[in-house]
Amino acid sequence: DSGVTQTPKHLITATGQRVTLRCSPRSGDLSVYWYQQSLDQGLQFLIQYYNGEERAKGNILERFSAQQFPDLHSELNLSSLELGDSALYFCASSVVEGREQFFGPGTRLTVL
Amino acid sequence: SQKIEQNSEALNIQEGKTATLTCNYTNYSPAYLQWYRQDPGRGPVFLLLIRENEKEKRKERLKVTFDTTLKQSLFHITASQPADSATYLCALAFTWPNQAGTALIFGKGTTLSVSS
User: Fold this and answer.
1) Rounded to a whole number, what is the distance in Å from the CA of B75 to chain A's nearest CA?
2) Is residue B38's pLDDT more than 90?
3) Distance (Å, whole) CA B10 – CA B21
């Protein structure tokens, strides 16, 4: 158990819908990262927050957004969903940026 | 742009042998290189981190080397066991231009199968 929690574990929805994925980092970790993993693309960095502030953006679509709250939990919002958004979404946290990251169990999103 | 390549998608070895996985990168000079293990449907688990000024790092049956001239890291599992069967991911810490944060760029991974 990494100490990072993610909910829900599974999400099935339809194209055009909007969903919210939730992540709680390890106790004491201020950095939260979101990744998308699909079979053909591997693990792709989406966005990073540090103590409530956005720090880096990777390959994140404009339809996706995230935030980190004062209690350090984070939410990833995915809107206008397309079939190609079906993937595993992981949250990770770290004590120091660039160092080892601890991953949650992931949310499997299926868009029908 | 930065690129990380793990040059084998799959590696099959016999129990007891040493597994060697390769990670090559281009267009970047990372301060750290990391290795993770991922089991199907689960989140990656951190294994080892090696700094650019370290040639080798060991942890139990695991050994990582880092050659910044060749831009390559080798990951070894000695005395491999069926329980070592998993996908192993190489990752570099990367700071995006004009952005404050540092995140990880991952290779696509090598799936190791250890047969008894």
Assistant:
1) 16
2) yes
3) 10
Residue B32 DSSP SS3: strand
| pLDDT > 90? residue B1 | no
How far from the centroid of its chain's Cα atoms is residue A53's Cα?
15
Say yes or no: B46 contacts chain A, CB-CB below 8 A. Answer: yes
Confidence of residue A29 (pLDDT cuts 50, 70, 90): very high
Q: What's chain B's average pLDDT? A: 93
The reply to whether residue B96 touches residue A56, judged by beta carbons under 8 angstroms, is: yes
Query: Which residues does chain A have within 8 Å of residue B109's beta carbon, measured at their own beta carbons?
Result: 42
From B41, B46, B101, residue closest to A48, measured CB to CB = B101
Residue A9 Ramachandran class (φ > 0 left, ψ -120 to 50 alpha, else beta): alpha
Structure tokens at B95: 């700071």
